[in-house]
Amino acid sequence: MKISGHLKIKTAIITALIVSLSYQSHSQDDVNENQFWKHVRFGGGVGLSFGDGFFSGTLAPNAVYEFNPRFALGLGLNGTYNKQKGFYKSTIFGASVIGLYNPIPELQVSGEFEELHVNTSFDDSQFENDRYWVPALFVGLGYRANNVIFGMRYDLLYNRNKSVYADPWMPFVRVFF
User: Fold this and answer.
1) Which residue among 35, 39, 111, 155 is buried most deeply as judged by most CB within 10 Å?
2) What averages of pLDDT result for each successive group of 10 residues across the chain (177 residues)?
């Protein structure tokens, strides 16, 4: 089969257009992806507490997407291990969704829904081991200085018998990079 010169030119032009559009589309995806990551901030918390046979460790990473300088929305994870020697041990795992609003650069208002799974086992059989889910809905207000926020939050769903927190009022420090 013989291909005419005119068909060869058309094939070359179509191939060049496809390659060009493919490259341009791929380049545009790279630009969009780079723009996305410019708006993502990572942060979280690390906690350690120990003394007199007690140990507690927490790791709570999170990430937020800044839609603009005033509003951000993100996700977080939480993992905690507690142990009181000769009494109990517990693991707590969960996730959260957080919204941040800055009416002015120095002031941050936050809302966060958190759902945690608690698994507690006691060394003494007179206490019953316990596994349950517990929600928390926090509203907070903080002072923002660059990427660090100091503030106070309140758990609207606080349950004294089930909450993993000692009190519905909690100070916080958030850091985002």
Assistant:
1) 155
2) 55 57 53 83 88 90 96 96 94 97 97 97 93 96 94 96 91 90
